[in-house]
Every structure is written in C-alpha cells, then in structure tokens.
Amino acid sequence: EYYNKKTKDAQDFSDKMIRRRTMTDRELVKKAFEMHQFAYVPYSCFPVGAAILAKDGRVFTGCNVENGFRG
Questions:
Q1: Could you tell me the pTM of the whole model?
Q2: By the 8 A CB rule, do 53 and 28 touch?
Q3: pLDDT of residue 23
Q4: Are 65 and 40 in contact (CB under 8 A)?
C-alpha cells in the first residue's frame, strides 16, 4: 500500500507539472498533425487534425469525421 501511495503521489505531481508547463507552438502543431491520422474522410480525402491549448495547460485534440447522407 505504501508503494501504491508513493506512485500515485508521484503521478499526481507529474500531471500537475505537465499542466503548468507551457506548450510551444511547434509542440501544439505536432499534436494536431498526429491527430489527422484518425480523420475519417471518404468523400473529401482531406484529413484535418486539431489541437488547442487551454489556459490551465490542458491540450484538447480532435479531427474531422465525414458522414455521407444521400436522400
């Protein structure tokens, strides 16, 4: 139990330090580029990845997903 507590405390500290660290533009663009591989684009064939840095240091990522409807 002692080991688990120390491991959890170390992880919590690490998470806080990562959030406090400011991400560079280059790192943010890299994350966005990494996300484009998850895009589903059977119609446009134009994958897009996105990454946004929040004020608290969290990074939110996403990509485009196309949905075709013919009616």
A1: 0.61
A2: yes
A3: 80
A4: yes
